[in-house]
Amino acid sequence: MAKNRAPKRPHGRLGRPPKALAGDVESRILDAAQHVFLGKGYQSASMDEIAELAPASKPTIYSYFPGKEALFAAVVARVINGLTGFEGYTPAGRTVQDKLMSLGTELVERFIKDTVGVTRVTIAEADRFPALSRHLHEAARDRAADAVSHLLNDATDPLSRTSKSPFSNKRSIATAQIFMDLILLPMLMRSLMGDEARVLRRDLPSFVRERVNFFLAACEAGWTG
Fold first, then answer.
1. What is the mean pLDDT of residues 24-39?
2. pLDDT value of position 137
3. In sequence order, what are the residues at sequence separation of 6 or more whose Cβ sits closer than 8 angstroms to the Cβ of residue 68?
4. CA 46 to CA 96: how far, in whole Å?
5. Which of 15, 16, 94, 133 has the fewest C-beta atoms under 10 angstroms from its C-beta?
6. Alpha-carbon distance 35 to 141, whole Å?
7. How confident is the model at residue 224 (pLDDT cuts 50, 70, 90)?
8. Residue 94 — pLDDT band, cuts 50, 70, 90?
9. If you average pLDDT over residues 2-26, what whole number do you get?
10. pTM assigned to the model
11. In the 8-state DSSP scheme, what is residue 17?
12. Residue 114 DSSP class
C-alpha cells in the first residue's frame, strides 16, 4: 500500500512560513493533519505536531479550524472529495465492457491511493464520533453513486436510451450503487483486513473483468425479463 508521505518540513523557527512555503496554508495544514492522523490515530495526534509539520502556528490553524475534531472532519471531507470528484474523467475503451472495466478500476485505484487510511482511522473513532463515521460512509456512497450514475449512462449509451434499460434516469443511482458494491466493497474489505496495495493491484484486472461481466449479465436479465 502506498505510504502516506509527510509534508517536507523546513529548518528553523516555526510560526509564519517563509514566502516560498506560504502557498495555500489551508492545504498544508490538511496535508500535515492527514499524515499525523493516519500515523497516530485521532486520539494520539497532537495539534502541536500538526503545527510543526505544516508548518503553521497553532493560532493560524485555529483560524481555519476551531479544534482537532473540526480538523479531522475536514480531512475526511477532502478525502471524500478526492474519491468522488470525477469532473473531466472519461472511461477508456470502445465497448461497454471496456468502459465499465476502466471505471471500476478507477474507483478501486482512488480508494487504494487516498481512502484506506482515513477509513481505518474513522472506524477506530466510530464510538467517539459516530456521526462522522456515518457521514464518511453515506457521503462517499451518495456522491460516488451520483457521479458513477452519469458515467454509467455515458458508457452504456445507446442502451441508456432504452426505456426498459436499468440505466434509465429513474434507476441509474440504484444501478450505480450496485456497481460500486460489486467492485469497491470487496476490495475495501480486503484492504481493511490487511491485504497490501500491490496484492490488490495484481488481482485487480481479473477481478474487475469478472464483476463487470456479472453486472452486465444481471442488467441484461433485468431489462429483458
1. 91
2. 66
3. 42, 45, 47
4. 49
5. 94
6. 24
7. very low
8. confident
9. 50
10. 0.70
11. P
12. I
* pLDDT beyond 60 at 5: no
Sequence letter at residue 41: G
Q: For residue 184, what is the DSSP state? A: H
What sign for the dihedral angle of Cα 80, 113, 38, 123?
A: positive
Per-residue cell: 155: 458508457
Q: Which three cell numbers stand for residue 173?
A: 443511482
Q: Which residues of 67-77 are buried (b: 16+ CB within 10 A; e: fewer)?
A: ebeebbbbbbe
The residue ranking higher by pLDDT, 112 or 26, is 26
Q: What is the reported pLDDT for 166?
A: 53
Domain boundaries, the chain: 1-65, 79-224
Report the b/e string of 20-52 with b at 16+ CB within 10 A. ebeeebbebbbbbbbbbbbeeebeebebebbbb
Q: How far apart are CA 222 and CA 220, in angstroms?
A: 5
b/e sequence 146-158, b meaning 16+ C-beta within 10 Å: ebbbebbbebbee
Instruction: Average the pLDDT over 35-51 and give the result.
Output: 91
Query: Measured between alpha carbons, how far is 64 from 50 in angstroms, rounded to an integer?
Result: 13
Angle made by CA atoms 12, 18, 23, in degrees to the nearest 5: 130
Q: What secondary structure letter does DSSP report for 159?
A: G
CATH architecture of structural domain 1-65: Orthogonal Bundle (1.10)
Distance of CA 108 to the CA centre of its chain: 9
Contacts of 166 (CB under 8 A, 6+ apart): 175, 219, 222, 223
Written as nine digits, the cell of 139 is 457521503
pLDDT at 121 over 60: yes
Element containing residue 111 per DSSP (H, E): none
